[in-house]
Amino acid sequence: MKIKAYKRPDGKYGIRNKVLILPSVGCANETARLISEQVQGTTYINNPKGCGQIGSSVELMHRTLIGLTLNPNVYGTIIVGLGCETIQAYDLYKEIKKRSNKPVEVISIQREGGTLKTIQKGIKLARKMVEEMSKIEREEVDISNITLATNCGGSDATSGIAANPTLGYCSDILIKEGATVFLGETTEFIGAEHILARRAKNEKVRNNLLTIVKNLENEFIRLGIDVRGANPSPGNIKGGLSTLEEKSLGSIMKGGTSIINEVVRYGEIPKEKGLIIMDTPGYDIESVTGMVAGGAQICVFTTGRGTPIGNPIIPLIKITGNKQTYEKMSDNIDLDVSDIIEGKKSIKECGEMLLQEIIDVCNGKLTKAEIYGFSETCIYRNQEIWCSW
Prior knowledge:
Layout: E1 2-7, E2 13-14, E3 18-23, H1 29-37, E4 42-44, H2 56-70, E5 74-81, H3 89-99, E6 104-108, H4 109-112, H5 115-133, E7 139-142, E8 147-152, H6 159-176, E9 180-183, H7 193-197, H8 203-223, H9 234-238, H10 244-251, E10 260-264, E11 274-278, H11 284-293, E12 298-302, E13 316-320, H12 323-328, E14 335-336, H13 347-362, H14 368-372
Helix pairs in contact: 1-5, 2-3, 2-11, 6-10, 6-13
Pfam family, one: GD_AH_C
Domain D-galactarate/Altronate dehydratase second: 5-133
Keywords: Hydrolase, Lyase
């Protein structure tokens, strides 16, 4: 199974070709945005923090920002810092240079002498980088080079019956072809973690999986939080989901039936291929951003009630098993698999349809979120509970 992609100096392949303008701190967000808006071919990530963080939160942010620059869809990066932040722009630059030979530049607002001078220098650097990027052409490669992010949002009763099983079928096919698939949203493992644990490659993977769920539950208890109301959300309940356990049983179907080879932290690049569990929050935009930092070049996003979100680095393919949702939100959703519920098509048939859509998008077809230019990002910024692993 083949796709067409852009080869990177580190040997990885991207299905999109972008220069990333990356603020190391929230104080540099607007400067980075203004640079990106002036240069076609660039994209911009909003950084919610980068300063005033302590402990494992610093490690998480540092790891995620570096991971975003290493994503195969990114040709090169221009880091924009302020100069006095916790996550130092020049430290990020040095670490990226150690780990990759992709193009990377760094500028600092305080060092350059203010926003205007920083923007002017950033535009000059970005134009040069985009010009070099434009010389890269797609080449035919095996689909085993793909890492697929999976996510669900605005789930309803149709999600676990149609959309998630369709994605699970594709996940299994891609894994058989040698690709990598991320399954995240740890909150939505609760009540179904024992089922996932049976599929762990070994005892270590099994223990890591059960630990991230147990640690999350213990944190809810410690804080005196009742997760109900957040999960399932009011929209989930209105859509027919009664409990978190019911939601979890549907959610885990996105990962198909394959063996789980590794459990990784938020934004961490896995060492293994195949099915990988990433410890992400339930909030969709944070979850997808973590998988992008982990190296995903594309995401299939299942939804029952509908969602418009996109991402600046990777395309999001939206699928739904709810006919009414597709008819109401067809400008946001790429694929309707409600024929499964109506008995007109099987999960296999819809899975093959989704697989072809994935190949088409890898080869350059724009998703509806891309056509709109939607580019939501949010980096998880809580303290990590298991960062010592």
